[in-house]
Each structure stands twice: as structure tokens, then as C-alpha cells.
Amino acid sequence: MKTVLITGANKSIGFETVRQLLQQGYYVYLGSRDIEKGQQAVSQLQSEGLNQVEPIEIDVDQIESIKAAREVLGRKTEILDVLINNAGVSGTMPQTPLETDISVFKQVFETNFFGVIEVTQAFIDLLKQSPEPRIVNVTSGLGSLTLHNDPSWKYYQVKAAVYVPSKTALNAYTIMLAHNLRDTPFKVNAVDPGYTATDFNYHSGPGTVPDAAARVVKAAMLGSDGPTGQFFSDDNAPETGISPW
Questions:
Q1: Is the pLDDT of residue 8 over 70?
Q2: pTM over 0.85
Q3: Among 80, 152, 189, 190, which one is most buried in terms of CB atoms within 10 A?
Q4: 26, 29, 156, 163: which one is catalytic?
């Protein structure tokens, strides 16, 4: 049975991703900053008959929490097949390049960028024990610099000066990581779940949580012939599914 760790998984797209991977036969470690909320999420899944799941306390903003989570998971399994870096924040709005306080930049980058790096580095040894390791970085279609320079793009006016660069940086890290692991069985990709109706955007998005999670799950389950170092986005590129960087 393949194992997967998902950060920020006690609600929304992360929670639905857990559900769908459980339905596919994975054993899921449900990462949650608040262990009580994580346990509540697990109880909900177990009430649905999905039992191969347990909570892991992990706050991606705190390196000591990440290290503790690695120790806990290491006592439970010697192999991690999939890491899904899902935890993310948007930061206070509005966000402008000149008026937004630097503290907001630091807070958002701590979660969306530095947290991903620290989690990936902490769990890479367990991932290397898998015959088909997968790393999925949950990004945003807004992270595309190419499209942000295209006035005809449907999201051209959405210039959130903190959130957007944090996801662009995450995309760049994904490219670097995929290249670093290019001669191994790893598949490392960034996935845009799409503009989805969640608490994250005050339920303003037109997409559904199940559809968003399915995009993440697809990348997590890539076969050995699947791509690596890609930016998957059905929203940005409905025909090809690959967004320009």
C-alpha cells in the first residue's frame, strides 16, 4: 500500500484530496497544524468507511514542528511514496507592491515557499525509499509570469503583490527540484487546482472542491512514463493542461 503525506489537509481541497487518495487505496497521513482539527477530519473520513488514514501534527511555518512530524512519521513507516505540499495562505488583502507591509510578505512566503522547502528537505529521505516517489506542490494559476504580462488573460487584473510572487517562487523551486532529481524515479510537479470555491477566497471561485482535488490526485498518481517539472493547470490551459511559466 502506497503512503502519502498531505500538509494543510484537515479542510477544503486538502481534505478532499485525502478522501480521493483513500478511495484509490493509499494510506494517508493527514497533516494538520492543529492536531484536534486533524483528528476531527480523520473521524469524518472514518465515518465514511475510509479507515487507512491518521493525523500528523505539522505546522509548515515552524521548523521544529516539521522536524517533530518527520520523527513521528519515521516511527510509522520507512517509506513515503507521495508528498503533497498543500498548505498555503493568501495573506491580508488588498495587496499592492508599495503599500503592503513587509511583514505580510514574510508571513505568506514563510508558508507558501519556505515551508514547502523545509518540508520537502525533511521528508526527502523517506521519499527516496519509494520505487516511484512523487512530489506535488499545490500552486496557483496566478503564479504564471507569462500570463501576468498578457492583457488578454482573464485574470490579468488580479495582481495580488504578495500571494502571486509566493506562488511564482514555488513554481521556480519546483523546476529546480525536478531538475535536481531528473535522473531518479521522482516526478516533481506544480499543480494549479483552479479557481475553486473555498474559504480561501470567500467561496468566490466557480470551480468545485472535488474537481480541484482530482487535479492534485492525478499528479500524485502519475505513472513512470509521466512528466516531471511541469506546471499543470486546466484553468490556464484547458486544451493542453500545461500552463506557461
A1: yes
A2: yes
A3: 190
A4: 163
Quote the cell numbers at residue 18.
Answer: 485525502
Rounded CA-CA distance 26/112 in Å is: 25
Q: Is 173 a catalytic residue?
A: no
**First-to-last CA distance in the chain?**
34
In the chain, what are the domains? 3-232 (3.40.50.720)
| Segment 179-234, tens digit of pLDDT | 999 999 999 999 999 988 666 665 566 689 999 999 999 999 999 999 999 999 99
